[in-house]
Amino acid sequence: MTDRLKKAKEQRSKKINRVENIKSLKTPQEAFEQLKEYAKKGYESIPKEDKEFFLKCFGIFDRPATPEKFMLRVRIPGGRVTALQAKKLGEVAKKYGNDYIDLTTRMQVELRFLKIKDLPQLLEELESVGITTYQTGIDNFRNIVTDPLDSIAKDSVIESFGLLEKLQNFYLKKPQWIGSLPRKFNTSITGSLSNRCNVYGHDCCFVTAFKNGRYGYNVYLGGKVGKIAQNADVFLGSEDEVLRFYEALITVFKTYGFRDNRNKNRLHFLIKAVGMEEFIKAVSKAADFEFESAGETLCSLEHFDAKYGRVELKDGSFAIHAVVPAGIFTGSDMIEASEIAQKYGNGEIRLTVEQNLYITGIKEEDIKSVFETPFFHKYQNIDTPYFNNLISCVGAKHCPYGVIEGKPDALAMSEYLSSKISLSDGKIRLYWSACVKGCGIHEFGDIGFIGAKAKVDGITEPGVDIVLGGSLTKTDSPAHTILKAVPLRFAKYLVEEIVLEYAIHRRKNESFEKFFERVLSLYTYSAISFMATFNYAMKKEKFDYRFSLPQKPETGKNEHFEIFDFGCRIYKDLVGEKPYLEILDFRPLGNQKPANPSKIIPEIPKKTGNLIYKMISPNPNERYMAFSECLNELKLW
């Protein structure tokens, strides 16, 4: 079994990537010890390799685009902080970082606008309340996520936070593990029935399961951006088994993981090279233990939503949900949240993967007082889904890879949709990444956005690729780019049409993900992009007509058939009669030759009439066969 791993590693070891060569220059600890010296001498004294690799092992990132240069990523295990820790985070953000905080998709915080001279003192202050920044960047085990309502939610059947801390103890601050992995490694664990932590989207996932009268965890492995983890067919029925499995797993990954192409060095690619069955055999051998086959996975398809901003907990108290759009937060806000947690709650704040937070342990009689605080006036869970489930990476302002601003674009889109389409009982996840690296986990969103460059009249401007159909649970994620390089200023109009389909045809309390499965998944992605683009073109032409996708298609996800079907339906809507008397297998019969609709109804824009005619032309050589031809005909920008 390990022979296959050895062979795979040998095949991928012919060339070592540049970062692996940097690792040979010194140890991360040596670079970290020099930090105080760097602080005394100033930014210019820091060697390039320290900025590129070694200091990132401790969460310190050079950000030359910002005036004060540095960002600090702070580890928050499971997103759980005490009121004391939250207060300290707020204080250091105000003191050293322009009062700015980002909440992240790994339930952590990032501090920005930092000066190198302040970093040693800042790190010391964080450590004084039990907070560290160790191993939050580059090739390390990253912050472990869990259900933010672990152990206190009514559907939390296994308390997982204590086990999370034991998993973390394997590697945290251990010299042999710092910066030594082939690539970053993300871990999740949940003992709840609801998926509140994107549990399937990580390298290693321990997911609530049941087998032979016992609750435990099924193992899923190999998740990454755009890929849900695969079922490893392993059930772990005790804490000891989880710890034994994890130690063996991370040892196998460190030993056999690829170190050549950094884009293909995650655990996903190692498993792909040898197969899941062989990989698990190697883990079992390393653990010297035969693990059980998987039980019944219990963590649900639906992601949990805090209706009305509150969640009733096991003990009768409540968790109050604060929505922080795109994770843009401040030190002052964190201090205020800590004061609310101390005064009204149980002294805890719990961050979420959707860049929001809960204040827990609020008694029912205190809910009104909590909602009346200035903090919740600013961050209330509002009666719209466009902000409650919004994610965005930091974007071009703070990241050298960003193609678009990101957070401002995400907020602008949500504000526009809120003003146009009311969805008080709906749920839609809008996830934004400012570049293809995917820190905004765009491929897991219902509608995802990737920063891109677009052209209008030959001039380059900010744009996005629009991704549709992501899932937090499906093994084969259906996420697909439906429109590429859409100028940002036009993207909101196309997304509006997709969301409008959801608003018109959804069932009561149906999430967008469920609506996608029930309706949109019956069509090609090209058909959906046509619907959105065509309807925007009609609005642009100020022509009062909107085409809606048929709820029961008979086109078999075939573009040729979809085009003809859509053209016939649009023709009938506009002209008032069918273009053909009879249709068999989407081939027109008889000698009927439908006229260009613009010739029948002069009000129809000529360009629209030409498009519809070419969608249903009786001449097969004249008829459009792909939606890309239809989109080219529309030429919106």
Overview of the structural elements:
- Helices cover 36% and strands 18% of the residues.
- The strands form five sheets. Strands 6, 7, 8, 9, 10 and 11 form a six-stranded mixed beta sheet that branches.
- The model has no long low-confidence stretch (mean pLDDT 92).
- The chain has 23 helices and 23 strands.
- With 637 residues, the chain is α+β, with helices and mostly antiparallel strands.
- Report the sheet-strand fraction: 15-25%
Described by the principal axes of the CA atoms, the overall outline is: globular
Instruction: State the helix count.
Output: 23
- Rounded mean pLDDT is 92
Tally of DSSP β-strands: 23
Uncertain spans: none
Whole-number radius of gyration? Answer: 27 Å
Helix content: 25-40%
Give the termini separation.
Answer: 56 Å
Give the biggest beta sheet: 6 strands, mixed
Assign the structural class, choosing from mainly alpha, mainly beta, alpha/beta, alpha+beta, or little secondary structure.
alpha+beta
List keywords for this structure.
alpha+beta, 637 residues, six-stranded mixed sheet, 23 helices, five-stranded antiparallel sheet
Short description:
The protein has 637 residues and is an alpha+beta fold.
Record the SSE blueprint:
Blueprint: H1 2-11, H2 18-23, H3 28-33, H4 35-41, H5 48-52, E1 60-62, E2 70-74, E3 80-82, H6 83-96, E4 100-103, E5 109-114, H7 119-127, E6 145-146, H8 161-169, E7 187-190, E8 204-211, E9 214-221, E10 230-236, H9 239-256, H10 267-274, H11 276-287, E11 296-297, E12 310-312, E13 318-322, E14 328-330, H12 331-344, E15 348-351, E16 357-362, H13 367-371, H14 374-379, H15 385-388, E17 390-392, H16 407-420, E18 430-433, E19 447-456, E20 459-468, E21 480-487, H17 488-505, H18 512-518, H19 525-540, H20 559-575, E22 583-584, E23 587-588, H21 597-600, H22 606-616, H23 627-634
Parallel strand pairs: 6-7, 7-8, 17-18, 18-19
Antiparallel strand pairs: 1-2, 2-5, 3-15, 4-5, 4-14, 8-9, 8-11, 9-10, 12-13, 13-16, 15-16, 19-20, 20-21, 22-23
Helix pairs in contact: 6-12, 9-11, 10-11, 16-17, 17-19, 19-23, 20-22
